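Sharing a chain and its predicted structure for anyone who wants a worked example. Both blocks are below, sequence first, tokens second.
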Amino acid sequence: MSAPLIPATWQLPETFRSRLGSTVGRQRVMGHEGELLIVAHQPPKADENTRRGVLFWYDSQTWQASNGEPGKVAIQKLIDGYAKRIDEFDQQEDRAQRAQDYLPLLDGLAPLMRSSRNFHDVLDEARKLAPELRELIDLRDHAYEMSRTAELLYQDAKNSMDVAVVRRAEEQAQASHNMSVTAHRLNTMAAIFFPLATVGTIFGTTLTENWSWSQTVGPFVLFVSLGLLAGVMLASFVNRAVK
């Protein structure tokens, strides 16, 4: 059973509680009478359908985090958690070479990129709601750097995959061309020897031993010459340009 979204020890204002459901929902920030409540997501996984949430509450004096860690430190640790996941994908991108290597990379990077960008937007909005909290400036800037890194990595991986797909398509096209050339050569050879094989099948290469004119080498040479000539003519006909 998952832990409750709001810790039991928190004396959270009712205006915040009324805007929270049983699940974390989207990332957002709420402000009320000098207090802030930041609803954030943990770094998502590629196969994760439900987001894991963490709350950061500023009670007008101190920060608190729903995971039990010190408030401001917990926000920075969340940013560092995103940065660590991005670095893991960066190393995976360095090892990728083929198009299929980039598919799981992009599948994992896409939700991470969206979540990190939304988290930065939340911190930027929190900074506007509480301009007196100077610590939010550094946290927002760190979140921006992390989010920008994720976006650049995603775009770089997508471009690399596109290049790999084009390269693979060129290799397949070249292989198909080579096969076509080989088949064409075989067809040409078959066309050259087809008349010779046909005549030889009908009369035999001995040209019927009963016939008196078949006792010398002349008829055989004539037979081969005419067969090859007919084959060349047939090959030229097969290979003629189609208008």
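Comments welcome. Residues 66 and 199 are 93 Å apart (CA to CA).
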